[in-house]
């Protein structure tokens, strides 16, 4: 997804530096919803340049610092289109496999440990929602909120809420079991 993100940004916004691409990815919080780490872009830029998908358009000198400005090529535009087509065709439903596996064997741990871990996961999801809301607000302030981006935010919130509901349900069941055992 890193290559797709880089090519997409260069195609949409024109030539820019790796640092600018990294800033755009950080402000959009791509590590949360696209699983693209902004720090991974420099390696991807080198690979895209080697594949002739991007070219070094210019080097800009600011004081002692030299900044490379990259531009998407026609081959890069075609590669982006192919990547997007494959992405649209791929199934995008993702199950929380790690959680489901842990729940399958949760009897190996005391209920209190499982409940505590689920509470930590709940806190992390709530933080994720807060972070996404900040990203959404930033997009709104920059005037970069497209209908598609708004739909993505709605979908992310819905998935987070569904996961929170499930985690809270598991906590309630375990807490109920704990209370039931203490009355016997």
CATH topology name of the largest domain, in short, is Arc Repressor Mutant, subunit A
CATH H-level homologous superfamily name of the largest domain? Winged helix-like DNA-binding domain superfamily/Winged helix DNA-binding domain
Strand order of the largest sheet: 1-3-2
Number of strands: 3
Report the radius of gyration as a whole number of Å.
Answer: 22 Å
The total of helices stands at: 8
User: Number of domains in the coordinates?
Assistant: 2
Kindly state the mean pLDDT as a whole number?
89
Overall outline: elongated
Percentage of residues in DSSP E strands:
5-15%
Largest sheet: 3 strands, antiparallel
Helix content: over 70%
Estimated structural class: mainly alpha
Low-pLDDT parts are 180-184
CATH architecture name of the largest domain: Orthogonal Bundle
Task: Give me some keywords for this one.
disordered C terminus; 70% helix; mainly alpha; elongated; 184 residues; 2 domains; 8 helices; 3 strands; three-stranded antiparallel beta sheet; Arc Repressor Mutant, subunit A
Can you characterise this structure?
- The protein is mostly helical.
- It has two domains: 2-89, Arc Repressor Mutant, subunit A, CATH 1.10.10; 97-182.
- Helix content is 70%, strand content 10%.
- The protein contains eight helices and three strands, in the order H-E-H-H-H-E-E-H-H-H-H.
- Helix 1 packs across helix 5 and helix 7 packs antiparallel against helix 8 (147-182).
- The longest helix is centred in the C-terminal third of the chain and has 36 residues, at 147-182.
- The radius of gyration is 22 Å and the shape is elongated.
